[in-house]
Amino acid sequence: MVVPISFVRKGNAPMRKTGPSAPSDHGKGFSYASTLIGLALTLFLAFGCQAPARTPTLSAQPTPTPTLASTPAPTPTPTVAATPSPAALFPRTVVDDEGTTLEIDAPPTDIVSLTPANTEIVFALGAGDRLRGGTDFDDYPPEAVDLPDVATFTGVLIEKVVDIQPDLVLAGGNNFTPAGDIDRLRDLGIPVLVVYAASVDQVLDDINLIGAAIGADAEADEITSGMRQRIDEVTAALAGVDRPRVFYELGIEPEIFGPAPGSFVADMVSLAGGEPITTTDPAVFSISLERLVTEDPEVIILGDAAYGVCPQDLATRPGWVAMTAVRDGRVRPVDDIVVTRPAPRLAEGLAALALAIHPDTDIAPPVGVSTHCPSPD
Amino acid sequence: MNTGVAAARRTFARSGWVDALRHRPMALAVAGLALIVVCLVAGVAIGNVAIAPADTLAILAHRFLGWPVAVTWPQSAETIVLELRLPRVLLAMAVGAALSLAGTTFQGLLRNPLADPYVLGTASGAALGAAIAVLLPIQVALLGLGLLHLFAFVGALLAVAVVYRVSRLGALSSLTSVLLTGYAVGSLLAAGLVMTMYLSGNNLRQIFFYLLGSFSLASWTQLAVSLPIIVVGSLLIVSRARSLNALLLGEDTAAHLGINVHRDRLTLLGGATLVTAAAVAVSGLIGFVGLVVPHLVRLVVGPNARLVLPLSAIYGASFLALADMAARTPGELPVGVVTAILGAPFFLYLLRRYRNSYAL
Predict the structure, then answer these.
(1) Number of neighbours of residue A37 by Cβ within 10 angstroms
(2) ipTM
(3) Does this model's pTM top 0.80?
(4) What is the DSSP letter of B37?
(5) Tens digit of each residue's pLDDT (9 = 90 or more) over A298-308
(6) Does residue B330 sit at the A interface (CB-CB below 8 Å)?
(7) Beta strands A245-249 and A299-302: pairing type?
(8) Strands A101-104 and A92-95, sheet pairing
(9) Alpha carbon distance B185, B195 (integer Å)
(10) CA distance B136 to chain A (A)
C-alpha cells in the first residue's frame, strides 16, 4: 500500500504580501497623527484581504504512468503559439510568487539575481550572459562564481544594483531577500520579480515564470518537462516500496536541526519514498534528541555532509546508537545543495535522495551530484 | 621629584590644545559644524560604487542649487547620490545627534556615567517590538516605513513608561529605583526577545540585523518621519538644560535651587526617551554613540549641560555619519560594530589622560 504523495502545504503557507508594494512617492509633509491613522487602516485592510494561499496542486500521484502531457499546475506562462523570437513575446505581463504584477516591455538584457537558485535557473535557461550581478554564494554553474556580488548574507547592496541599472531583478521570497530591500528597489523604479517555491511543483512553475520573464519560454518548457519526466521516473521506481522513517539532518550544532512539518525538505523526503521525521511546528527547526530517539529513524540522511559530517561520526554521538538507522548502518550523505535548492538540478537531487533512502531501487544514478563523504565500502 | 615635575610638565604640554578649547565652546561648535559639512560631502561622495567626486558635486549643485551643469553622469549615479546616500548620511546624523543628546540626559538624570540611551529598557522594548512585528503574519509598508519601525518606536516608549510607573511604587530613593527597575524590565523584555527570536524561524535574520543596527534602508521618508520627533525631543531636553545642571547636584539641592524637580525630570526623561525611540525605530540598536560621545565632550568642556548638550549633538552627528561611511564602504558592516571599533580606543586614550580631572 502506497501512501499518496501530495505537495499540499500543511498549513504553513508563508504569508503573502498584500498586493503590490506601497507606492513610493509620498509627499514629505504629513502629520504623524495621520500616519498612525493610515497605518491602522492599512492594518485593517491587510487583515481583511489576505492573499489566498496558492492552490495546492496534486500532481505526483504514485501511478506508474509517467505521462509527459500531464503537466499540471497553473503555470504563469502565457500561452505561446509555436516558438516566435523572444522579442515577439514582449511586451508581456507576469505575476510573481507574491502576486505582484510586472509589465515587461522587452526581453531583459541586464538581469540581476539575488539568490543562487535564480542564478542557476537563468544559466540553465541559456541566459547566463545576460546576468550582470549575482550573490556571493553562487556556486553553480562554475561561471556564476565570477558574477559581481550584489547580494550577501546581510542583504542586498542597493547601490551596486542601482549602478547596474538592471531591467529585471530576480529576488527570493519568504525573506530570502529581505523584504525591505525588495521594497527599496521597487521604490527606486527597478522591476523586481519575487520567486519563492514551497514545493517541488512550484519549483517547476518558477522556472517557467523566470523563463517567461526573460523570454526563454521554450527553454523553460524543455527544462521543466525534463524535470517532470525524471520526477515521474523516480516516483514510478518507488511505487510499492516500504516507506522507512527518515530523518533528514540539516545540522547538528548547536542543536539537532531537521525539517519542519510541511517544509520543502519534508516534501522532498516524502517524494523520495520516505516518511519524514519532522520538528514539532512549522516555525521550529530544531528537534530534541529525546524526540528523535522516540521517533526512531530507520534511515538518516546527512544533509550536512557538505559541512564535514560523515556517516561514521554518528556512532560516536552519545545516545545515537539507540536509533535503528545508526545501529543498522543506514546513514547516508547527500549533496544538500542539489536536494534543497529550488533550481533545475532539483530532479537529480530527488533521484539522489531517493537512492539514499532506497539504494536497491533501479533509479538511474543522478548526474552531477556528489556526496562529499568517502564511500563506506 | 624630578620625574614628578617632568611628568606634570609633559601632561600640561600634551593637553594644551584641549585646554585651549575648553574655554572656547563657540570655537568647538563652529569646528563641529564644519566637520558636519565635511562628513556630509564625504558621505555622499563615498560608497561601495565609485562615483567621481566631481560628478557628486555636480549632481548636488544641479539638483539643489539649480546650477546649469551639463548632465554627463548616468541616471544611476543621480539615484545613488540623491536617493540612497544623501538621506542615509542625514539620517545617520539625526540619529547620532539624538543618541548623544539622550545619552547626556540619562547620564545626568541618573548621575551614572554608565547610563546610555538604552539604560531604561528602550533597547529591549524597541527590539521586542521589532521582533514581534517581524513575526506578525502581515506585511505593511506605509510611507516607506514598515510595521517594524512603528512597533520598535512604540515598544521603546512603552518600556520606559512602564519603568517610570513601576519605579514610583517602591520605597527606594527614586534614582536607585529607576535604575534597578530599568534593569529588571529590560531583562524581562530581553527574555521575551530571545523567545521571539527562537520562534522566528526564517525571519531570524531580519531580527538579528535589526539588533545590529544599520542605515542600509534609509530613505527620505524615514528621515521625514523621524526628524520632527527628534527635533521636538531635543528641544524639550535643551530647554531643561539648566535643570539638568541642578539635578546633577542631587534632587534636594535642585529643589532648593527652585527647580521643579518632578516636572523637569519628567520632561527630560520624556524628551530623551522620545529621541531614542525615534532613533532606534529607524536605525536599530546602535551602541556606544550615546554612551561615549557625551563623555568625550565632557572631557573637553567640563560638565555644564548647557554646553555638553548642543556639543554632544553636533559631534554625535558627525561621529555616526563617519562610522556609517566606514561601515558601508567595504560592503555592509553593522554600524554598531564600527562605532565601537572607532570610538573605544579613542575613548580609552582620553580616559587615561584625564583620569584626574573628570566630573559627570
Answers:
(1) 11
(2) 0.76
(3) no
(4) H
(5) 999 999 887 88
(6) no
(7) parallel
(8) antiparallel
(9) 15
(10) 9
